[in-house]
Design a protein that fits this description.
The chain is α+β, with helices and mostly antiparallel strands. 28% of the residues lie in helices and 40% in strands. The strands form two sheets. Strands 3, 4, 5, 6, 7, 8, 9 and 10 form an eight-stranded antiparallel sheet that branches.
Length: 194
């Protein structure tokens, strides 16, 4: 399933139409998870798109390639050590990526070192990423495992076409830093109702 979702995720950057756009903070409720994120101007935010409950899709380009952010709420996590697998997880990630690339005649170019970060409202963000090339072009893909306020876990996958990295990596990072979830969003929703 992961391989199919990744392939479909890569395909969307060249085929999804650009007939609806948003430039605002959007709130999403997926099951028990509620979160907000700033959707950049001229980006789209379809639900249930190619296996991702929420996707943010960048504007079309002359090359027909688009940047994509896929967000999957993964539920509650009370386990403080949910990410403490260390080298085992990193090796499994690389092996999985290499197997996927082999299926599609691709080659890895480089892997980012594992990073653990945090920002306002995000307790932990664990990131792995890599650059790769396929017969159709070069890409930069990242997987982030984000632990939000209220101990909610999110899996975020980003895909940026190689020719858009200089601009879109910054947009993706800035967008992800607007993600608010858990107690903070629930409190704002209660305040709106009053």
């Amino acid at each position: 399933m992961f391989v199919i979702r990744t392939l479909l995720f890569a395909a969307v950057i060249s085929i999804y139409p650009t007939d609806w756009a948003s430039a605002a903070i959007k709130e999403f409720k997926i099951g028990e998870d509620r979160f907000t994120i700033d959707v950049p101007k001229d980006w789209q935010s379809p639900l249930d798109f190619y296996g991702f409950p929420v996707s943010l899709i960048g504007p079309d380009t002359p090359e027909g390639r688009r940047t994509v952010i896929g967000i999957t709420p993964a539920g509650a996590s009370d386990d403080e050590k949910v990410f403490d697998q260390g080298d085992k997880d990193i090796k499994a990630y690389i092996a999985g990526r290499e197997a996927w690339l082999e299926q599609f005649e691709g080659k890895s170019v480089s892997y980012d070192p594992y990073q653990k970060t945090k920002w306002e409202g995000i307790e932990e963000a664990h990131t792995l990423g890599y650059h790769y090339s396929l017969p159709t072009g070069k890409f930069y893909e990242r997987s982030l495992f984000i632990l939000c306020n209220g101990r909610r876990l999110y899996h975020v996958k980003t895909l940026v076409p190689g020719d858009q990295e200089k601009t879109d990596n910054r947009i993706v990072d800035d967008t992800l830093k607007t993600l608010k979830c858990g107690k903070a969003v629930a409190q704002k929703a209660r305040e709106k109702k009053q």
